[in-house]
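Q: Structure tokens for this one, please.
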Amino acid sequence: MKDLARSWPLRVAAVTFALLGLVPMANLLSEEGHLGWWSDAVHHWVLWAPPTLLLALLLARALPRGVDAILALARRALLALGPWAFAIACGVVTTLLSVYFGWALFEWRAVTGDEFAQGWQASMLAQGHLFARAEQHSEFFSTTQSLAMNGKWFSQFPVGGPALSAIGSMAGVPWLVNPLLAGIAVAAASRFFAAIADEMTARVATVLLVLSPFVLFMAGSRMNHVGTLAFVCVALTALAAWTRSASPPRTHALAALIGFAIGVAASIRPFDALVFAVCIGAFQLHDAWTHPQRRASLVTQVVVGAVPVVMLLAANAATVGAPFAFAYDVLNGPEHRPGFHMTPLGHEHTPRLGLYVLSAYLMKLDIGLMSWPVPAFLLVVLTLALQQRATRWDYLLLAIFAGLCAGYGAYWSESYLIGPRFLYVGVPVLLLYTARMPFVLRERWSGPTVRRAVALFIPLCLLLTWAV
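A: Here is the predicted structure, written as tokens:
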């Protein structure tokens, strides 16, 4: 019974991901016919998955010593650098690849309305202004993502994202901001993975994060999801260190870093930060219940975290005239808010439609998360179904991803850039479980050939994807 109590969150997550990400639930719920790209994806997997699996088995069976030597060499290479050197190196590689793909895909330019609106806001901030003077006939200058109120003209987005872009604008390299933030995100995630998993799993997960097309392509854009990912990863890394800290000064410093990182994330994408704040806060309260020496640091965390949030509220007050009113709500009205109601587009967002949107997001991640010859959620589901026990970190990570899914399933705007952009900050969660897959399977199967084939599978998928 105790094992069941510790494993049920994993099994529930496995069933949920299977039903929404592997079963084409969006096709079953769609009232307008099937999603055309899904059949192409299935054809791709049917074409490429069997040869990849067969190749792994053949190599494991025919060349056991050679495979063992290659795996040992790969292990030594992954573990060659020290923990921080490895994290920094992965961050640098991520930044360089993001710069490359930013040029290859976008020529280092804004290409979407969101990017144009935030870039315009950033240019004002770089000149020391929160808003521009509205034109006399503002109806001739308004856009779907800008407001003209009381003689002020500004974009609909929270101030944090444009503020980060403004730093790049002032330095003359606005295209470099997201690649640098992506590098910070990967370096921080690497240290977080190492704190909650064994070192080898952590390094495999970090490599997957570095080589994820979804991560890199988005990092080459100017979307504000990348900055949010960077700061929530910093918060998670500080959280892992906070749980191990025995020194009061260090505990307070780490709590301050958690608060600051979540506060900055809130100034960029408030809902994403809210999900992380609630989950991390609940996690810390549970920890503080058994470790009273860490309770006082939570006050420090709240006080420091309030600073970026107060700046966000001050910017709201200076633009729309009310601290707790966001520009996109003022622009679109109460219909803009999450929930099941009439939307700004004139149709009703229902639970059925919300489930369709969520399934479509996960189905898209099957393709774009790693672009492998198998659906991405197949490996995640296998890990969650076979992992024996959930740790407290599993509870935290699954709660974060569930919160993102629930929130964006209840949001009326189905939106993509490269992939399901609203789930971008949840990618490290998925890639950690992907990295665990070979280790979990090797614990269940004792046959040497199968164990070698399982260990080969992820490297083969990476080689195949990047070679193609």
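A few notes: The two ends are 48 Å apart (CA to CA). The beta strands are 132-133, 146-149, 152-155.
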